[in-house]
What does this fold into?
Amino acid sequence: MNLNQFLSSDEDRAWIKEPHINVYVRKTFHYISKNKYPFLDLANVGVKEKFRGKGIFKAFLKQFENEAKKSNRGVYVESIQEIRLEEFLKKNGYKYVLGTPEAFPSMYKLFT
Ligand SMILES: CC(C)(COP(=O)(O)OP(=O)(O)OC[C@H]1O[C@@H](n2cnc3c(N)ncnc32)[C@H](O)[C@@H]1OP(=O)(O)O)[C@@H](O)C(=O)NCCC(=O)NCCS
It folds into this structure.
């Protein structure tokens, strides 16, 4: 299933397979500062080893954010285990979800 198929389906979770990148995504709600918001979660991401560091995740995230915006959802990245990814998200406007472990933080971005 690709991202567009997932978004137009009734499924609330799926493995998205795009060229060189696999991502586990969910349609969810999360509380941020006591307010409940709809989100698209990125719960697991892997780029094929040979293709890492070539902008594949960056391009996927841009598309993911655009689709989230269109459906009035934020983007929530769960349990980040790669410091370079954390720094990249911070640079791109993501905030830490309070209460998630420092070693595996979750981060989010709202568009409203
Ligand atoms: C982390 C991962 C998804 C990033 O995807 P990618 O396509 O390699 O990343 P991009 O080339 O789009 O680069 C995006 C940012 O990630 C960072 N990055 C670059 N190469 C990277 C690498 N080999 N591994 C991790 N992060 C990397 C960079 O800091 C980059 O930010 P910049 O543009 O400010 O320099 C991918 O490297 C991967 O699958 N790693 C192994 C599995 C993993 O760590 N998954 C995440 C667990 S939370």
